[in-house]
Fold each of these.
Amino acid sequence: MEHGVSNALVVRGLHVSRSETPVLRGIDLDIAPGEICALMGASGAGKSTVLRAAVALQPFNAGSITLGDVSLVPGALPPESRLKALRRNVGMVFQAHALFEHLSALENVTLGPVHALGWAREKADVVAVRLLTELGVAHRASALPRQLSGGEAQRVAIARALACDPGLLLMDEPTSALDPARREALGETLRALTRNGRSLLIATHDVDFARTFADRVLMLSDGRIVD
Amino acid sequence: MVALLLRRSYFVRMRVLLLLAAMALSSCSAPPKATPVAKDFRWGGDAEGGAPFVEADPADPAKVRGFDVEIAGMIAKGLGRRPTFVQVAWASIEQSVERGDFDVGMSGLEDRPELRARHAVTIPYFEFREVLAVRIADSARFHTLADLARRRVGTLGATQAYQLLLDEKARTGLEPVSYDDDVHPYSDLVAGRVDAVLLDHIIAERSLRRVGGFVIVRAPVATGHYVAVFAHDRTALRDSANAILLARMHDGTLETTLRAWNVWDDTQAAYFARATRAVAPSATEGAASPRSVAAYLPGLLRAAVVSLALSVLAMALAVMIGALIAAGRVYGSNVVRVALTAYVEIIRGTPVLLQLFVLYYGLSSIIRLPAFAAAVLGLGLNYAAYESEIYRAALEAIARPQLEAARTLGLSELQILRLIRGPQALRLALAPMTNDFVALIKDSSLVSVITVVELTKETAIYATNVGSWVVPGLLCGAIYLAMSLPLSRFARRLERTWSMA
């Protein structure tokens, strides 16, 4: 599916404080369709906070976040019903993958389409197998998360985040547990994912990876984006 | 007949079970006898039985008074020794006298063949009547046990009256209801939970004065005798006691004492006349051998089914309510959390025995639950508190990133609970739940206090009938193990299979 021409993510003046301490002090960010954007910065600079705010896991104090046709406003997180549309537009891959321990790789991927979107299981299975094949882990479809290697688990987590076909994929420190060869392979995979117009926002402190695979690199320091 | 208020029967039972090992040992070697040199005449009784048998003296609670106390004093005096009272739980008197804890046991002990087969028993010193008590409104229609076919009749468990009711059950379908104390049968009679009570006339008359609201049927159902019990090898001492008792019947001292305690009537006069005329004591030694294991086993197995059914139903209730409490404590508002936490703490901080009493007797003016239902509800509500803690811990053990990942997929909180959190928590909870179920099977023995006859209660009745806890205790233990061991193994297997690193 081709994704739209308007920007996948627009962030304006984003402020986030945690127990009175400012974490983000006015972030502006635009991600174009098909773009891979790397968000860099030292540990604790607030990279993850940007991602969590964009996927409505983290409330923010001021500013706005727009994903496709859905906007988030400051204050408490909106109710479940209003988040459904937002969560169709964005997928997230967590640093430790956060796979559902009691479900097989395939079931991890089909859970969202079947239960959030109401797809028939057969249709969800077809899509999931296609995704796992593209990511090179189809042979592990019936394995439980604890039986997967770190690289395999990451690919299953990517497949899970893409199962509902979001226009934007957020990734938190995707290279932290990968050796150089696998890092290379991941970069190629991510490039392939943007071919149909999907955008990627990657929080990382891996300079080489960012420079090699990202279209644009942003530095986060002291709660602001610097050049 | 038991004249005892066994309010602490659960603890009594525990103590008795602890005695098992000692009993088994003592059956291998000669039991130690701790008496002859002392000038003291040690007699054992249970002051919980209350007046007129044995009670703590209101003027000096360190002392006891009652007609049993005075008769023990007469025997001691006749032997030229000083009486010393030893407090002993009523259900343990027979075991304790054989162990040598005291010289003689007296506390409204019923004369019965099993007792004579196992111990040296005196001639009876009192004749009592087993009398029926019925509600005033029923006094015109219930006169005999036969009138009470298919009706509920209460009495103390493990007594001659209970045996009479069991025999009647086989004939007319009368439903015996066993109590652990002699107060609640009468309050339940007035409340309509039972249709009659069968107990000794002394207890019936005492309850009539205290509780009221019922009448005692004039014609007795049966008669019985109170006796004193010595260890089986102390027949010489027993014979001396018999001579003393006969002498006190002759000289009127015994009559004076019984009159002083308001228990003298024409029946006693007639009995004393018979007893003092007779050359030999009225009862015969070793009249009947204890019924065999085969005779009691079906009853024990039926009681085991009651225990198991009770445990399964209570556990089902505990699981349902426990899951709701856990969900409320994890997801609910502050008010809900505080209320549920208070419930859990109150239930866990008070004895289940107290909760059963409150549920069955305390609330009987508001809601009159049948005993079995009250037992299921009481144990279920109690275990729900413990189960809820297991579920809460299990729910909170599921890693937060998994829950966040599920949220980013667009699942609702309810879906997350149903699809992600619940199934994983259940795996964590299953082993501790199974352990709790094993504990519940054993705790189900507590419900005998609200008249449910389950495995432990049936065993106590059996043990009293045969005068020993060895065989009944071993059988009962074996049945509990047969129920709990497979479950414990199942729990261990679950733990191994589902242990998630």
Note: The mean pLDDT of chain A is 90.
Amino acid sequence: MTYIRPKFRHPDLPKNDLGYTTKEYEGSLSTLCAGCGHDSISASIIEACFELSIPPHRIAKLSGIGCSSKTPTYFLGNSHGFNSVHGRMPSVATGANMANRELTYIGVSGDGDTASIGMGQFVHVIRRNLNMVYIVMNNGCYGLTKGQDSATADEGSKSKAGSVNPFQPIDLAGLALELGASFVAQSFSGDKQQLIPLIKAAISHQGFAFINVISPCVTFNNNPGSTKSYDYVREHIESTGKTDLVPEKTEILTSYESGTGTNVMMHDGTYIRLEKLASNRNPFDRMGAMNALQNARNRSEILTGLLFVEKETENLHQTINSSDRPLNTLMQEELCPGSSVLADINDELR
Amino acid sequence: MPNSKVNNFVIRFANVNGTGSASANYLFAKAIFRMGVPVTPKNIFPSNIQGLPTWYDVRVSEKGYLGRREGVDIMVCVNPQSMPDDVRSVRSGGYFIYDSTKALHPELIRNDVTYIGMPLMEMCLREFTDPRQRQLFKNIIYVGALAALLDIEFEVLEQLLAEQFEGKEKLIGLNIKALKLGVQYINDNFSFPLEIRLERRDLVGDKILVDGNSACGLGAVYGGATVVAWYPITPSTSVVEGFETYAKKLRIDPETGKKNFAIVQAEDELAAIGMVIGANWNGARSFTATSGPGLSLMNEFLGLAYFAEIPTVLIDVQRTGPSTGMPTRTQQSDILLAAYASHGDTKQVLIFPSTPKECFEMTAESFDLAELLQTPIILMTDLDLGMNDHMSEPFVWDDNKQYNRGKVLDAQQLEELPRFGRYLDVDGDGITYRTIPGTHPTKGSFFTRGTSRDEYAAYTEDGSVYARNMERLLKKWDTAKNIVPAPVLYQSENKSPYGLIFFGTSTYSAEEAMDDMEASGIVFDAMRLKSFPFNKTVEDFIHSHEMVFIIEQNRDAQMRSLLINELNVNPQKMISVLNFDGMPITAQFITSQINKTLSPAIN
């Protein structure tokens, strides 16, 4: 693979509201295996941020350790990135978010990084409803250490070497729902049509937004018998419906049949438009989402799309009543009480 | 000649934990402090909430010695569980004050100790009806009795109660009633005051009585910390509680009522330090506080912060390890763990406060140091300093002092820069320029990672680039030597072949031991360490003495190891004085240990 990315871009590349093309949202050339699902997710993140016209430098991208956690190098080159330690991206994201509530935080993790060593931090960042997007690139295996089963590998899934996983999988989307996540979606790296709007909606959501993306590992877990292979996922995918994010200024045109769609207004004035919802699916019904997910699993299907969203949600800054201004912009005059206050404190201690 | 029994004794209270004794005992200590007499209270408590023995030692010292002293002159024992041991620990000629509601077992009678029995339980049952009051006021009654026995000014006690229960007149009245019951009982039954007693002095000056953890919390408010992440662990918990208490008073936005700070109680220490690193990376001053087991858990992240060069402030309130050890007892035993925290080649900056005043100013200063050096700063305090009240110089703040945020490029500077190199040593001091996320649309972004990278933060596995970066980190370490707090020398020029080195809470007792030994004809030079890395003064001090005693509170002579490892010094002349039983070190212990080495030579 070449490491030289051509600088040339088509002169007529479409521009967003900031006048940027997707070039301003790209990162370095990926060093992942050709065909890796993760690269498609990176491309979807680039497209989603471009379409939302977010200034790249106002995004912070964070990750843990593993193949998936390498991807922030490959998207949003003009954003600050932080490749932290294994399974601990949520804590770094929490601290960063506390320091500056105005940036957009995109956390990227894998099934090894999240469902094993990072499980504690994953569940607690959900509990706190931190305003961030948390994407798991879920391939059911440890790619960077050459293909060991991960905790999301399905029971009975066969590895490339032929061994069958005897353990129950951890269902991250189901867990997120159970824990009270305020936005839960599931998707497939091979379905950008679905994934891009989901990422856009997740960014617009002003609380914790979780997207579990099945992202096949072409090198170690794309074999027959694997339940995380491209072929298997394509055959077993089931969508909750079509999702789109409509910008604030766009007039909402009902392009779907009456009774089959829902518009979800987000805090920033945008709408998530859900079309062709499966019958008796309500995106505001947590219990319903949990049931639907479990039922799909019982049928060996993978339910994708927006599973649940909480319209009115209180994120961590709101919960702890911290300043509306980013804490990292407060100056010494506002932070340091000075010597006269200290004299009073000394007096109280005498 | 002054009476050696006036303003010069140790009193120990033996209580059951969870009975409200700590506040009564504090009232006693504070009253002595208010009488202008130097006082050192120490709470010796179990890792338990209710029902186990707990002790509270108060040393009163006319000479102003603030270290712990062995030997109990007066024992106030209201805990039958510990009574046999408590009787044994009284010095010959001392006093044993006890609850005589139940008669003492004859085996507990010593003929070299004076017994003062008071039917505390009986008095409480008679005078109070509420069960909780019956328990609480038992403690206040003995404080009243002590006021009579030791000549504590009653008005001082009244004043302290009035301050403590301001606005709760009924409580003040009840407490004063209990105090008077104690006074009355002594009046009616004993001759007083005792030979051991108090006299008002003017030896306290403008000093304050405060614990080190509150001082650290306040220091963090003054140092500009805005993001605090933590996980509860004794004995560090009250650092963050202290921060919160002061921040709630001093850091509320007057217009919105919102907090100009964020405190997150993390799920564990791993997350706490991760949050601190994330916040500092994003330009907020942020810290956490923990103790040994937490420091162990934080090791991986401390390596990341060292290598990725992220300012981080960590307060380690050391306790007795290893593992859970004795979690409510003191030690200085995390030194090596902290100094080389993490895998790979790491060295961490350590700061050693020894008084609450230093806890305050060194915590505040740690934020400057962390941002100047772009590395973790670990403040090494301990349970004794953190959780006990100490008589300390008052806190001082210079309003002209501006926070030093270190080398941070703003949008304008980035605009003017041809190319930003996050790890490019522009100034030759090993400290590079950083940017805060969100600063400039196209310049200044970089990827922070624990993997090796070049001067422009690009990922690389090129060994020579890696080595170059590691060498630069060492250069930064050399720069740090002249930035971190310098050691304190006790003499302008050497006057002895013997040197003492100590730090942190060993200081009080080391100073007292020096006085004691000087009185017996042995003079020492002394140096108090305030930080790691060690500068040249430290090396020179060791070189210029034939024998150097290193006083520390751990088994393995960790500071000695660090000195030997980091400096070109002869280990054979480095003699350890090691106290590690979980109790604060005493002057007597230091003197006896040093005498063991020196006596043959002197003889």
Note: The longest helix of chain B spans residues 169-189.
